[in-house]
Amino acid sequence: MRDLLARLAQSDEAASAALRVFDYFDALDASGVGPEAYVRGAAALSSCRAGMMLQERRLTLRIAPSGERMRAERDFVPQEEWLIAPAAPASPDVVWLETPERSTFHELILERVAQGVQRWLQRMEALVPEPAQAWAMLLNDPVPGERRQQLFAALRLDSSRQYQVVAHVPAAPDGGLHAYTTVQGAQVVATIRPAPFSMEHTTGAKVRYGIGPAVEIPELLDSWERAVVVLRLARQGEALPWDKLGVLAPLFLRAKPEEVIAEPIVRAIDSENMPWLDQTITAVTQTGSVRGAADLLGLHHSTVQKRIDKVQQQFSLNLANARHVYHLWLACAAHRYATFGRPDNMAGDVRLTPRPFDHPQP
C-alpha cells in the first residue's frame, strides 16, 4: 500500500496527502506515545480541532490545529455533525474531528487516531491493575509521579467526590475499596470511603480506627498518612477522626517513634508496670474528679485514689492541677503512638475514649 501511494503521490495530490498521514502515524506507532500525541497529530494534519473522550478514565481532550488545548466542560459532548469514530469496538470511548466534512482524507486521519488510541488502551489494560491492586501498590510500593497518576486513575473513583482513608486493626476487611499494608510491623487495612465517613461503619469492640480527612483523589495518600497517625493514637475499640483532634494530631505527623519514646515521661510510662494508667488518666481527664473517674471505670473511689497517689509519686506530678493531668494524658497518647505494633500495645484491653477537646484546656 505504501509503495502504491508513493507512486500515486507523484501525480496525485490526494495520494500525497494520504502518504503524509501514513508516515506521520506510523512514526507515532513506532514511538509508543500516548493518545494525546495522536489527537495533536489529527488536529495538525486536518487543520481543524480534534478531540478524544475516554469515559472510564474520565478524560476529555480537545486540541486546536495550533496545538493549544481547548477547554472541555465536565458535561461536554461532541456534536452529532462532527466526524466521530469509536476508539475501540463496542466502547463508549470516542475520537473526533470537529468538522462536518466527510472526505476520505479526514476519515483516514480519524481511523489512524482511533487505531492509535485503541493500542494505547490495550497497553494500559495490560499495565494498569484492578482497583484493589492499584491501591495496594500506592500504599506499599515506591511509585514515580507519572505512574502514581495512572494508579489513581485505576482506582476508578468518582472525580467529582471527596474520599477519606480509614485505617484499622485488626486487619479484617469491612467492605469498600481496601488493601493491606504494615505499620510498625502490624498489619493494617486501609479502606477508601466516600466522604463524609459514617461512624456506622465502625464495628467491633476490639477494632481501632484512624479516620483520615476528606480529600480529592490525588491526595488520598495524604489522607492515609493522617489516618495512620490517629490510628496509632487510638485505643482498642475507638474510632478516632483526624479532624476531631485539632492541633494535637499534626504534632505527631512527622514524629519518629524512637524520638517520642526517648522523652523522659514517655520513657517512664514505658518502664512502669501500670497497665491501668492510660484508662485511669483518661477517666480523670473526662470527668475532672476522682469520684467521677471511679464511676466511669466502675471502681470504688478509693481504688482510683490509690492509683492517683501512685502516679503522683512515680511521676512527680500533682493531678489536682489540670495542667498536670493533661500533660500526663498527652504523654499516654504519645506512648501509644510510639509503641504501636508492639504486642503489649496491640493486645491491650478495651479503653475509654479520650476527649480532651470536650473540656476547657488548662
Task: Describe, in plain words, how this protein is organized in 3D.
The protein is of the alpha+beta class. It has 3 domains: 2-127, Beta-Lactamase; 131-250, no CATH class; 257-358, Arc Repressor Mutant, subunit A (Orthogonal Bundle). It contains 15 helices and 10 strands. The chain has a 5-stranded antiparallel β-sheet, with helices on one face. A 5-stranded mixed β-sheet has the order 7-8-6-9-10. α2 runs parallel beside α4 (104-127), α5 (131-140) runs antiparallel to α6 and α7 crosses α14 (322-339). The termini are far apart. The relative contact order is 0.07.
Poorly predicted residue ranges: 349-362
- Helix/strand-derived category reads alpha+beta
| Count of the domains | 3
Q: How would you write the strand order of the largest sheet?
A: 3-2-1-5-4
